[in-house]
Amino acid sequence: MTISSRNLNLLRSSLRLRPIGKRGFASHSSEPITFSVPPEFKTRTPPYAALLTRLDKVREILNRPLTLAEKILYSHVVDPEEAFAGKNGQIRGETYLKLNPDRVAMQDASAQMALLQFMTCGMDSTAVPASIHCDHLIVGHDGAEQDLKASIAVNSEVFDFLRSCALKYGIQFWGPGSGIIHQIVLENFSVPGLMMLGTDSHTPNAGGLGAIAIGVGGADAVDALTGTPWELKAPKILGVKLTGQLNGWSAPKDVITHLAGVLTVRGGTGYIIEYFGEGVETLSCTGMATICNMGAEVGATTSTFPYTDSMKRYLLATRRGPIADAASAVNNLHGYLRADNGAEYDETVEINLSELEPHINGPFTPDLSTPLSQFAEAVQKNSWPSKLSAGLIGSCTNSSYQDMSRVASIVRQAKAKGVKPKVPFFITPGSEQIRATIENDGFTDVFLGAGAKVLANACGPCIGQWARDDVPKGEPNAILTSFNRNFRARNDGNPATMNFLTSPEIVTAMIYSGDMAFNPLKNKLVGADGNEFLLEPPQGDELPPSGFQQGNLAYLPPIDPKPAPSAEIVVSSTSDRLALLEPFEPFEGRELKLNVLMKVKGKCTTDHISAAGAWLKYKGHLENISNNTLIGAMNEETGEVNRAYDLDGTGYGIPELMIKWKAEGRPWAVLAEHNYGEGSAREHAALSPRYLGGRMILCKSFARIHETNLKKQGVLPLTFADENDYDLVKGCATVETLDLLQMLNNGGADTGFITLKVTNRDGDEHVIKTKHTMSKDQVAFFKAGSAINYIGNLRRQTQAAQQT
User: Fold this and answer.
1) The whole model's pTM is what?
2) Is 266 helix (H, G, I), strand (E, B) or coil?
3) Catalytic annotation, pick one of 54, 488, 577, 682
4) pLDDT tens across 313-343, in order?
5) Of 150, 481, 648, 664, whose CB is crowded by the most CB atoms within 10 A?
6) Residue 602 burial by Cβ neighbours in a 10 Å radius (0-12, 13-18, 19+)
7) Active-site position among 76, 435, 468, 485
8) What percent helix, strand, coil does the chain show, rounded to 5?
9) Is 546 annotated in the active site?
10) Is 136 annotated as catalytic?
11) Of 200, 340, 492, 607, which is the active-site residue?
């Protein structure tokens, strides 16, 4: 990497240099550090000087080489002395960190509840820069223009609410049609060394530009929005060494689809994935974003890459030259944006990019990974549909210029041979900037000429907003997508649709065959002249040769909006879309005594707990959206979906029984198996159970985001110390905590166990040991009834103290 002599001299005049220590990392200096960027870039640039100063303090305490992820994360710790001193270096996987994120991003579906919670805190503005992105509520059906108009009409109340919140609190508002949250963040806000939170599980997409970006629930976002330190157990670090270089049909998507098969959907839980090795330098910035995006599917806290020349090229191409210069300088002079020499990882995986072949993952889970060379055999062996019903590319995972240019090269080859797609082909641009650029460079005409339908710049089918009418519900069929997630019924509401995840290049090649066994590396297509031909490997540009086009400038919000305290936020009392929140009741101060509402069998994602699709319209109305709670879950004792049984044996839909027990004053618990709450950062999957009377979730293991969301809403998350104890507890059993009060009184700092007494309806009794991960702050949330209650109480106490 290089930096211009002019910029290096400017930096030297304002940034005092520190020597590099013998062990390969910068040593502490007591001399002050100063650094600045032009005013219009200030809110989009990490406070590098302050971060380097804080990192010096961390180094003094830990005295060891640090990984890249540790550098960024630990330099955002509020108080390094409190976080790290006296821990004997036992940080990763052990110590809770209190962090000050630089930025928050919220998508429209989750922003509603986040802002409804933020409004209860009584603040005039957000404590950090924030943005709202209208992308989840736009249904794909007829094409961009028609779909956008229809969705704005249907969702105007919600969009107006979000716009008014943005105006009042000084938040950037990216309206419907502007693009998908993660693509806009990459184009505008993600920068090397940034730490940000996003109310979407695929927020780690920003790691492709060297950030630590973490998906969270709305209550976690409120921590950052109010300036309250955000808490995270220090993740372990999984190092993924990349060697070689991608070639032929292989693409960045294949790195993560392959890795998902290695790690499984919970293999990354509790880890940050940090990529390193000579292969990193061969990847484009947007390719690295694709890899980080889908890291969410292995349960990782986030993923990130060291600073590369391709990151600098992308920053320059997206009109952020001063930030590129700053990042280059800070990395060259201080090594801030790369791992220290000698830094150690908790686990290491190596991938040779030169040998990596395309992969296809699915159906129904993103970690069922099959190399393309073995996929035809897998289709036959598993009796998957032999014919493809649709191909979809785009989404936040794969809608970059490079993706679209490589796809266009395949479509052009097919056109030259007179071949047309055999199945419907849908394309979702990631942002208005991408849409305008691919139109300017002729790709859109290429796609339309092949009969493709270009959808709005939004999530669309990826999040379940697909008004599909070509396949009856219940009919088995296969789709290929370049999306990131493929749970049952997620895309079109049809539980029989099998979504296979792969690169946009493989999706595009296979739509010309329509055969699920087709392998473009070796199988030929038949041209209009009757002759067979083999598709050439795709080619494309990393960045647009003539530059990115901004498109419709009306979508661009002010760079640094100021709050307008007089702005009115209207929530109608008769609305079925939005409702103000009432605080949950605080903890009663006694041991819990609950009934088991049901035992969940098998995979239970946040899609099962709080379905998306048509339910997205109720994201701002807790009572209404709670009517979908756990409707996708399977009852372990009966094999039925959305069926639970009352104490007298009467059967109900799951939310109906929750509502009944809540009215009777009967608090309840749910038992589940592994990785409960996998998938989206959907805090309604915690809010709704709490709203309907749930007080405990007991399972074999949790997905990270969901476990945190439960804690934020005052639900006690426990895991079995012995997984076999799951079999001892029956539906409707009475469950009593024996030492919960002891744990709470100790501020969570006890043995890490809670003992339960279980009494089944037949009188069979068991005492079982369970594990908790409650920190001191999380205990305070539980006692207050929720994290928002706790923050509100603190704000009121502060205001009262200031008035006296």
Assistant:
1) 0.92
2) coil
3) 682
4) 999 999 999 999 999 999 999 999 999 999 9
5) 481
6) exposed
7) 485
8) 35, 20, 45
9) no
10) yes
11) 200
